[in-house]
Amino acid sequence: MDRMRHNKSDLHVLQWRVGCEVEQQGDEVKFLKGIDEYGYDGEDFLSFDVKESQWVAPVEAALPTKRKWDNVPILNQYIKGYLEKECVDWLNKFREYGDKKLRNGSPPNVYVIEKKNTNDETKLKLTCLASGFYPKDVMMIIRKTQTSLPEDEIESTGIRPNQDGSFQMRKSVEIKKEEKDEYDCFVYHRSLKEPIIVKWDGQ
Hints:
Strand content: 35-45%
Low-confidence stretches: none
Number of helices: 2
Order of helices and strands: EEEEHHEEEEEEEE
């Protein structure tokens, strides 16, 4: 803040991002790129160049830090080693955990969501959401007094992927407001011993 000549009573943000990118080549995982960088108030401030093992200062205010850190070669060697080796090892480890979790099957989290109908106060849209399950086959039924509703009354997103490799699905139906206590969401997935049945709980 002093270097930027910024008022100390104002709010400023320093961000730090560290990571690595890898590429799978057969059974081998190859290091592609290392990231160790700082941002100040949303602008680039300082970043580490892995190839050259030195800091890059895109703004003048970062030059004193660049000089100070580049003057300790052992520190830069450590950062380079961390990004190229240790970071890659961690990434592999977490990927293996994720793959193992998915291989063993992951059960769905099931939620029931209610949305008011702005055009008709006597009606509601009730949505059943199941997310986080793997493999992708799932059975989801919206029921009224424990009887399945016909599919042509139901709106469905189909099964969609989540970012972590698991899946999600949602189904919705328009209902009469006073009948909402009669509805539930019935979900069965092979990772479950028994089906999950969830009613709208007012949350």
